[in-house]
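Input record (Table S2, row 337):
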Amino acid sequence: MKDVYIFAIESSCDETSASIIKNGEEEINTVILSQIDIHKKFGGVVPEIASRSHTENITIVIDECLKGANMKMEDMTAIAVTYGPGLAGALLIGVEAAKTLSLIYNKPLIAVNHIAGHIYANKLEHNLKFPLISLVISGGHTEIIYMEDDFSFKNIGGTLDDSVGEAYDKVARVIDVPYPGGPVIDKYAKKGKHTYNLPIPMDDESYNFSFSGIKSAVINLVHNEKQRGNEIDKYNLCTSFEDVVVEILTKKTMRAVKEYNVKQLLIAGGVSANSAIRERFSELCDKENVELLVPKLKYCTDNAAMIGSAAYKMYLKKQFASYDLRIMPTLELANKK
Ligand code: KG4
Ligand code: ZN
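Output record (zinc ion complex):
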């Protein structure tokens, strides 16, 4: 078969990204323009500012990606884009750019689900062996997905309120760590001890999660200590918070791994960059003789390479989108069990 070059675009939140992926697994070039510094002063992503920034940068990012690869759009086999879930105004910019390129250069258009992208980030470095369980943990999602085959997604559980990334970012905010706080909590947690008593959220028989309670428990604790004039030990607080998060994520996910009798566990999404989560899953998977796949750090947070990786599977199945493709901000990966 002729080599397949997918030109992928991702703009669902606060990263404008383009990537060229050869035959589904070889990353030729990826450009990621992060808006983190712009949103930092607001303490989180401001949708209107995100979409304006995507508008300003999308053509630059596309151009840089082609130039860096020393390729032309004519060399591409297909154009892929994230069409949901995500921020409406942000998704629109990527989708309109992809449609335009597809029309002008007469290339098939592939509409990719952002969460499928996170899962297929793992395919850039590893072979997927089915059936498998995937834990998607990001700023927007916390889901346990069972996959019997490529692109067969069954949602067996997920958060009922906040995502785990949201909890990290809000806990960070209350101890004056700027957005996105997840990576900083990761570092602080390494320096502290588990001294604060926090509730283990939703420790039940389901595969669902709830992170709003622990987030509120941390916020209340900090406010109460401040009112009493006590100093919070932010390192100890981060260790205590992270221990509880790691405990509940690993407990439920490893139960699913056993119940569904899978040989591979995939972790994906921005929070999968967390070192404590990686280490604990690695220990538990070793013990259970399960292969753990975790993306390289650069493929954990939002990027277009993962979209190109997922799109390749769709290309092989000729799952192309038409020009009336619409953004789907609340798109789900799979129906709930
Ligand atoms: O996947 P992503 O880039 O965007 C969404 O699709 O939501 O994930 C961003 C989230 C943020 O909440 C950020 O704080 C979190 O991932 N994150 C981390 C770490 N690196 C990024 N959380 C904990 N530990 C990290 N090392
Ligand atoms: Zn994401």
